What we know:
It is a single chain. This protein is an all-alpha fold. The chain contains five helices and no strands. The chain has helices spanning 8-21, 24-35, 39-49, 54-75, 92-99. The radius of gyration is 28 Å and the shape is elongated.
Amino acid sequence: xxxxxxxxxxxxxxxxxxxxxxxxxxxxxxxxxxxxxxxxxxxxxxxxxxxxxxxxxxxxxxxxxxxxxxxxxxxxxxxxxxxxxxxxxxxxxxxxxxxx
Length: 100
């Protein structure tokens, strides 16, 4: 026969590896996020149920970026031509001139 010794570290490594392969940490974090955080859990549950429409979100993001650029150009005094990288930044005078 062969005499084997019990190795606690090897045993714990095996248990942890099994738990990770069974995705226990993922399901535990998901349970905590969806059930145990009160109001935040409601937000997470709603986000999990929502369907992701990449095409619609893409067009919405592009529209918001264009509107932000147009607003920035308007704050600079209506500089509608040229690259955005070539424009200077905002200063107090630009904002004051736009507000008054």
